Amino acid sequence: MIPKQSVNMADVARRTGVSIATVSRALRGERGVSEATRLRIQRAADELAYVISPEASKLSGGATGRVAVVVPWIDAWFYSRILAGIEHELRAADLDVLLYCLEESSQRESFFERLPLRRKVDAVIAVAFPLTGPERARLEEMDVTVVVIGAHAGEFPSVRIDDELAARQAVGHLIRIGHTRIGMIRTVDPEGQYWEGDIARVAGFHAALADAGLDDDCTATVPWGIEGGERGMELLLSRAEVPTAVFCHSDEVAVGALRTLRRAGISVPAGMSVIGIDDHPTAELADLTTVRQPVGEQGAAAGRAVVELLSGREPAERAVVLPTHLVVRGSTARPPEL
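That's the Transcriptional regulator, LacI family protein sequence above. Prediction below.
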């Protein structure tokens, strides 16, 4: 038997093969647990000499059956797919989701200063923004499980893609089919901030061109989104030497770029090739060549990591990097002069 003084709810969860949240509800007499499961959990708790103290567990941040998901935006496809993956895994483990949307830097500062989720959740999933040193310290003070999606996370478990590699895959495809004048439309957030993934994609763009001995000074920086893509392509078309192919930081940006080309009477791919990243649903409709990233799978992997950690088990990998794949469609071809 585990020594009495070291027994906790995770031990009961491991003994019975259920989630910590289910153990918490069963031992508190809450609804949502079958009688057979409740009896099995109570039997395991008795064998381990574990007695739950609801008041103490609430005060100490004990099992609540809730996980906070912190996102910078909620109305974009990427975040909705991430959330769907997270929610699917957490629901299967009887865990509820509390969503916090921090669109502005002032909201983010206030959130980490006040930590409204203190004592309300068992875990935090931070989606697609890198945590600063002070922010990590504040989460560590809460003594809860933390998993990060879409960024390097230091000591916290993380799930992401290799954004630099994804950019290399995109630009490498353009180089292989003969392009030597390749432009890039990169993005900034509404407050003018560059995100970790964007910075890595810029690095991949420059690295791919450097490896091929090509110039890399053809870049337009615009706000994220379709309108940003439209403006970015306008800027590239205004250059003295117009590129024959353009790498866009996302498929939505690429769709905007395609709109500008259509208005300018430039056919794709005969007059210019365009490639994006994501494999957004509109990519197939637009016949857009892209680099697919497993968006929903990132959310699901983060959800599974939280469940493992809350059950007292260490995930097989603390830094999960999911693969990306080139998807060739009709928006890329050999340059006009070839």
